[in-house]
């Protein structure tokens, strides 16, 4: 799903800058995934900001013609295509066996990036939640659908945080062995929920565009 050469280019660049808070390409890919799972478009400048973290020379390199810029855009395109195709992104990029008891370090970093992206588009999602609840009131048979999606969305964020901070999650869980044994099921559920969120974001984007066209 992801272009391996682009991953390598970005990984090598990050390794040359240990001062950056972004520690891996996995967190960047997670950030891209979370950024795209929103009804409003966020582009390359937000990704460059996430990586550079106020480091102007790095931001400039990522936003101008360079191998790193090309790699970033290629990965953005890869994730965009996957979400439009409703692919299960975790199964595609971070497959885990049915006997797995914990998320890999790569998946943990991906979750960190996704959560960082949610902080960027949180306000948009709040507006979309209001839109969904308003739409439900107009269609009686779908009255609970919007709230159900919101509840599932919030549960997904909690699960992402659990995976992102897995060692701490185990320490804080009253039965850490039960959490470990249930990881494979949680992983499958998370992948399914993320696919649903990305699909809802695309639907809401279409709805907004249609409303905008109606209003002229």
Our count of helices gives 11
Structure summary, number of beta strands: 0
Structural class call reads mainly alpha
The poorly predicted ranges are: none
Strand content: under 5%
Shape: globular
- What does the average pLDDT come to? 92
Rg over CA atoms, rounded to whole Å, is 18 Å
Give the H and E element order: HHHHHHHHHHH
Fraction of residues in helices?
over 70%
- State the end-to-end CA separation: 38 Å
Largest sheet: none
Q: Quick summary of this structure?
A:
The chain is mostly helical and 216 residues long.
What report would you give on this structure?
With 216 residues, the protein is mainly α. Helix content is 76%, strand content 0%. The chain has helices at 4-15, 25-36, 44-52, 56-63, 67-84, 89-93, 105-138, 145-164, 166-172, 176-181, 183-215. Helix 8 crosses helix 11. It is globular and about 50 Å long. It starts with a helix and ends with a helix. The model has no long low-confidence stretch (mean pLDDT 92).
């Amino acid at each position: 799903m992801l272009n391996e050469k682009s991953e390598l280019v970005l990984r090598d660049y990050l390794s040359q800058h240990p001062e950056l808070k972004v520690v891996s390409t996995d967190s960047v890919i997670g950030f891209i995934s979370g950024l795209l799972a929103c009804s409003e478009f966020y582009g390359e400048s937000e990704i460059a900001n996430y990586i550079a973290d106020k480091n102007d020379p790095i931001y400039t390199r990522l936003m101008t013609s360079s191998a790193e810029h090309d790699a970033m855009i290629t990965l953005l395109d890869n994730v965009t295509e996957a979400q439009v195709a409703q692919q299960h992104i975790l199964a595609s990029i971070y497959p885990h066996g049915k006997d797995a008891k914990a998320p890999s370090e790569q998946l943990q970093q991906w979750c960190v990036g996704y959560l960082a992206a949610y902080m960027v588009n949180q306000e948009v999602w709040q507006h979309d939640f209001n839109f969904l609840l308003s739409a439900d009131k107009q269609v009686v048979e779908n009255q609970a659908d919007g709230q159900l999606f919101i509840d599932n969305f919030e549960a997904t964020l909690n699960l992402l945080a659990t995976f992102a901070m897995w060692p701490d999650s185990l320490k804080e869980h009253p039965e850490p062995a039960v959490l470990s044994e249930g990881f494979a099921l949680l992983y499958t559920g998370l992948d399914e929920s993320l696919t649903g969120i990305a699909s809802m974001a695309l639907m809401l984007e279409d709805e907004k565009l249609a409303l905008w066209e109606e209003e002229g």
